[in-house]
Amino acid sequence: MVSAIQTLYIISMRAFYFLISILLANPCNLLAQDSTSLFESAKGSWACPIQKYSGVKKHKVKINKKWQYKIVQFFADSSYDVKAVFDGLVVSSGSVNGVFGVITKFGDYYITYSGLDKPIVNKGDFIKRGQKISTVIMNADGTYMTGIAIKRDDDYFDPYIWFQHKSCL
Questions:
Q1: pLDDT class for 131, splitting at 50, 70, 90?
Q2: Strands 66-76 and 55-63: what pairing?
Q3: Architecture in CATH for domain 39-168
Q4: Which of 24-33, 51-60, 102-111 has the highest mean pLDDT?
């Protein structure tokens, strides 16, 4: 016969295991509001995604008849490791015309990494800041370049303001 205390213990353990399974399945969805605040507070603190770079360019795109900075491109003289600039859940990892990209999510924000060789991270992986995700690929014009874009909902943000200006810009 099962006592009331044993029944409560079994129920509490099932609830505990259920919560742990949610956390392990998708750590980014927990406390999303706090995660978003943490992401926003990181402005000005990101390190460069490649260790050795030869130049940085803010790339403009035209949205609603207005030019806005939406991508930061990092140029190198050869293929270097590309490292995550912030923690996040990999929500996409794939290629378009042989050029790979990775999209991560943290809170309400998405970071897109472009100009990559085949990534070593997969959809569903949780990556940490500074973790290698790929290497820079040579473009058709012979240059090595990787790009970073940031999006929240339908809005793109200027990624330039998230980087440490002394470290890589």
A1: very high
A2: antiparallel
A3: Distorted Sandwich (2.70)
A4: 102-111
Tokens 């240059």 label which residue?
143
pTM of whole model > 0.85? Answer: no
Q: 152 is written with which tokens?
A: 């929240």
Q: Are 105 and 89 a contacting pair, CB within 8 Å? A: yes
Q: What is the C-alpha end-to-end distance of the chain, expressed in Å?
A: 69
- Per-residue pLDDT of 85-103, as tens digits, reads 999 999 999 988 778 999 9
For 92, 110, 128, the CA distances from 119, given in Å and listed in that order, are: 11, 17, 15
60-69 pLDDT, tens digit per residue, is: 776 677 766 6
